[in-house]
UniProtKB/TrEMBL annotation:
<protein>
    <submittedName>
        <fullName>NAD(P)-dependent dehydrogenase, short-chain alcohol dehydrogenase family</fullName>
    </submittedName>
</protein>
<dbReference type="Pfam" id="PF13561">
    <property type="entry name" value="adh_short_C2"/>
</dbReference>
<keyword id="KW-0560">Oxidoreductase</keyword>
<dbReference type="InterPro" id="IPR002347">
    <property type="entry name" value="SDR_fam"/>
</dbReference>
<comment type="similarity">
    <text>Belongs to the short-chain dehydrogenases/reductases (SDR) family.</text>
</comment>
<dbReference type="GO" id="GO:0016491">
    <property type="term" value="F:oxidoreductase activity"/>
</dbReference>
<dbReference type="InterPro" id="IPR036291">
    <property type="entry name" value="NAD(P)-bd_dom_sf"/>
</dbReference>
Amino acid sequence: MGRLEGKVAVILGVGALRNMGQAIAQRYVREGAKVVLGVRDEAGVKPFADSLGAAVVHCDITSEADLKRLMNTAVERFGRLDIAVNASGATHFAPFLEEQIEDLRRITDIQFIGTFQFIQAALRVMADGGSVIQISSVTAIALLPNHATYMATKAAGDLVVSAVAAEFGARGIRVNSIAPGPTADTPMAAPLMANPTAREQRRSATPLQRLGTADDIAEAALWLATDENFITGQVLQVNGGRAIHRLQ
């Protein structure tokens, strides 16, 4: 029997081929979970969803109505919601004095307000003993040049996770973040990883001497989703030790 047999999971952020959200969805299905995918491009994700036997719901993390429909679909179709994973995000960088208010608002809407709304929507329907998982970033504590907005919103999301974990622990609901570092195989990291020099710099600066992968994050998300752990309100640094140096 799989480690998630009988559990129902919602995953947001699976729109790009081979991204972390897709790796998590694949891992969950292999372990027996029923999965509902929240996506902005239903047609584009349909082949992936069909390969897993997963349900698909249109969902934009900035829309409260979309998030409510996503969570309710899981309950209506499968009778419950046990796991909610937010793997959505928006890459963005700019020198501090060149940052534009439009970009501040866009990234904040996705990575702070969106995170807040996602967790709210999940908790309104989640079964006691469930697990909420937020994909954060090592940059919430490890400085990366020209990423002030990205880093600040990821850090804010981690603080929301801590606050919610304290409030909902009495229901047995675990709320945690996973903080990846540079990854070798995800679409968001692809432009950086295409540069051999940049790729090698990041590998050599990682104490475990290799770059992370989407599967590394999926394994951590599997463990946090099971009932086999006793952890809540934490940021799990799944980045080969990059967080130790606090500098990218």
